[in-house]
């Protein structure tokens, strides 16, 4: 690997880490008035289209199953989600939002829409926004491929 490639990798990783922090900070602000945290919102958002097992939510979100399990249990305890039987797997129940959970996410929609419009304008329009999304999705897909085949670098010692 050339020094230029290493620098590009470092800049990419640092940029993504910074973006993650920025998205988490703004997500906390958006979620708070709805009585949610950013993490609760993420997990609820993952199951809005269809109920999923905890392991499936973890895969979609790219975090550990244990982290999702903890949040899912809190959401169920707060009445924002419920576990239901999973016909495909007896022990891995499906998490589904309750009406209260869906209502909480709907309360975030106006702020979410405003943020999307602000970000779109800052990026220079919808076309630039769409291209940003495509690049990030391509990066994520490439990282999935790299992670699946990655070998530890040789040790020099």
Automatic annotation (TrEMBL):
SUPFAM superfamilies documented for this protein: Winged helix' DNA-binding domain (SSF46785)
Signal peptide extent: none
Name the InterPro entries for this protein.
HTH_MarR-typ (IPR000835), MarR/SlyA-like (IPR039422), WH-like_DNA-bd_sf (IPR036388), WH_DNA-bd_sf (IPR036390)
Alphabetized Pfam families for the sequence: MarR_2
HTH marR-type domain location is: 6-141
Top-level taxonomic group: Bacteria
Can you say what this protein is called? MarR family transcriptional regulator
Q: Which organism is this protein's natural source? A: Streptomyces tanashiensis
């Amino acid at each position: 690997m050339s020094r230029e490639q290493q620098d590009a990798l470092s800049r990419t990783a640092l940029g993504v880490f910074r973006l993650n922090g920025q998205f988490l900070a703004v997500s906390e602000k958006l979620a708070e008035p709805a009585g949610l945290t950013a993490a609760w919102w993420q997990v609820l958002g993952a199951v809005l289209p269809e109920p999923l097992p905890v392991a499936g939510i973890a895969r979609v979100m790219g975090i550990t199953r244990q982290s999702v399990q903890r949040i899912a249990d809190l959401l169920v305890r707060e009445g924002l989600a419920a576990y239901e039987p999973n016909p495909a797997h007896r022990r891995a129940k499906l998490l589904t939002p309750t009406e209260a959970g869906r209502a909480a996410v709907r309360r975030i929609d106006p702020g979410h829409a405003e943020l999307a419009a602000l970000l779109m304008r800052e990026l220079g329009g919808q076309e630039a926004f769409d291209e940003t999304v495509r690049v990030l999705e391509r990066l994520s897909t490439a990282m999935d491929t790299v992670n699946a085949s990655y070998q530890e670098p040789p040790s020099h010692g």
